[in-house]
């Protein structure tokens, strides 16, 4: 890391606050354009923000464009929005279900990758020319919903034009500032740098970039502006396959005589910008993988990204490596070796499952080759996809309700349908049918909730600038929130499969197969949170027995694999029935995010020995209490169900002992293990290699471990910034050996 990059990164890490000033400027614009269509009002608001924002260039910067952040004062204005309150549109049943923690539902913007390749090819001016052209037929009619579905037909393209011109003007402000600094600067070296900044900004304000530096500058401005348009942070926007769309510039500069170290510093300065957003950010960047013809796409810039992550050791960007059978072996080895450095980076994706997940969801094969995670693990297609993602469904809560005839034991209120009191569930099949009935009922409620908010967002919360840089929105003349993108998914995330599988396994054994305890007695133990025995063998002894019963999910037996497949595919089957107002389909996911912690108090004790308040499993892996010490058996059970149906993405956390990184044999074993997983249809894998004792020391002495980064649930974060319960869950994960 050069001194320039180190100094800039140190400054970035000290930033705190939010872009609260945006509230004033947006509210000011909304008030002055009340008679205009919503897309135009939104575009004018972005224009006002970009015109009023301070522009600043710091000494040493190569890539410029600063996100204004500061601590909001006590009298900071409220967040302005045209979006109406969603509550009146909810049914009482939907509200009760959300309050009980059965599912979450709300506006989920971001989590997608803009068409950076197209932006680099056309420039903002080229896109603006397309926007101003007469309506053209869309590239493929089958990709789009009905014409009459657009709420702002005609106004959307006008809004895109306003937003694009505002973006160009904003970039020109930086060009002018750099030019003025050039004239004032006495140091010839610094004056030369300011002049280069001015020239780059003046170029990319309207035109396609000519070299790597200009390409990085344009991508950064586009990313920054789409974040500013959305709100006060990053909305989990992803960066996509930057090693692919930037490599032609990297390669051309090298061929023209540029030094690789100088180009690497330029990319590093771009990475610094990604670290200027304070707070927890998930800025996914994908490298490696294959192209549309199935050829290896690894290039020198892919290697450079691994080099930078080794130096940066930061949560941002969240680096994702795509694996495929023909991947460059040296690159894959370096990536796996990096993952053992104790920084929680990178995550790994299997092309066979990820690409098939897209084609299974209706994506054309040539587009599916550019599958990327957006947000943390939710899949989409780079540049042409608007996936409504990130809302979660609580599977263990559905099982709890099935055991209580649809009544929430926490409140005593009826939430779900009456599917039979415990005494009436006289067979395992009856219990499973009750669980499926609860799941189906609440998924119906959730799908309606999602579509309600989706429809309102399409009418009241458009994104004109983002729409201009997502493929087909311009040709369609439709905002990205209203079905303008080529592909429009709604991705529902199921949480807690390990708890459902192990709970059902335990009930089948103890209640139905062996008759050791009646279901009514077991439910009474759960209601008491195992504190007061309802039977002689109940209470804490029963809880411990349930907690450690074998085989459990992760042990890979026919029993565990069959039930895991049945539980997950039942969820998949139901989710895949729904469609959304943007002309797309619902796709299932198994991402947990932070719900394993946040929902811990909403789910009562379970038949797997879990008490109320204990963290839910943080991935599609086994419960920590199951004490599964074989990574091979974990991967086998985790691939017992079809990952290719899981376009919403999934996360599998594995923690390995530190000796995996100490020998070549350990690294070879880990690489082989990962390849077996991907060959079996595994989609995603993330690795932590950090000693439990070090994590405990970090809890007691956070200042000494401020830089410790770990993988949490689809994202990386600094360990000391996590909630203590989340820290404890990470510590509790089994330490495995790949051999």
Structure notes:
- By secondary structure, the protein is an alpha/beta fold.
- It has three domains: 166 residues, no CATH class; 254 residues, no CATH class; 225 residues, no CATH class.
- Helix content is 47%, strand content 8%.
- 56% of the residues are buried.
Tell me the Rg in angstroms.
26 Å
Major pleated sheet: 6 strands, mixed
- Mean pLDDT score, rounded? 93
User: Helical region count?
Assistant: 28
Name some characteristics of this structure.
3 domains; globular; 739 residues; alpha/beta
Question: How are the elements arranged and paired?
Answer:
Layout: H1 3-13, H2 21-32, H3 38-52, H4 92-99, H5 116-132, H6 155-184, H7 188-204, H8 212-230, H9 242-245, H10 247-255, H11 260-274, E1 284-288, H12 300-312, E2 318-323, H13 329-339, E3 347-350, H14 351-360, H15 365-368, E4 371-374, E5 378-381, E6 388-394, H16 395-402, H17 428-460, H18 464-468, H19 473-476, E7 490-495, H20 497-513, H21 519-527, H22 539-547, H23 558-575, E8 586-589, H24 595-598, H25 631-638, E9 653-656, H26 664-679, E10 684-688, H27 692-700, E11 709-711, E12 716-718, H28 724-732, E13 735-736
Parallel strand pairs: 1-2, 2-3, 6-7, 7-8, 9-10, 9-13
Antiparallel strand pairs: 3-10, 4-5, 11-12
Helix pairs in contact: 1-11, 2-3, 3-6, 5-6, 5-8, 6-7, 7-8, 8-11, 12-13, 13-26, 16-17, 17-23, 20-23, 27-28
In short:
This protein is an alpha/beta fold. A hairpin with a 3-residue loop joins strand 4 and strand 5 (378-381).
